[in-house]
Amino acid sequence: MFRFRAMPSCRDTPIIFLSMRRDLKDRTESALRGGNDYITKPFMYMELATKALSFVIVGPLKPVHPTKGPNGSGTEPAFFTTRS
After folding, report:
1. Residues 65-78: pLDDT tens digits?
2. Can you give the pTM of this predicted structure?
3. What share of the chain is helix, strand, coil (3-state, %, to 5)?
């Protein structure tokens, strides 16, 4: 998990753990490893979809990397949605 977060392009990617373990210890471990949310199995697909969608809706726009703008300057940022 830490290697995933170490990649610049994945630093702010939301991670939802799906696990059959229900202990508070396991939930805490997932948060310590960089997880943003935790769902226990069996899960409902609507629950997963709702949580994933919430990351898209709530997440602020952050610059990923500069792209070439209309003038070719490369100063206009590309944006994607992530959660802080």
Report:
1. 444 444 445 444 44
2. 0.62
3. 35, 25, 40
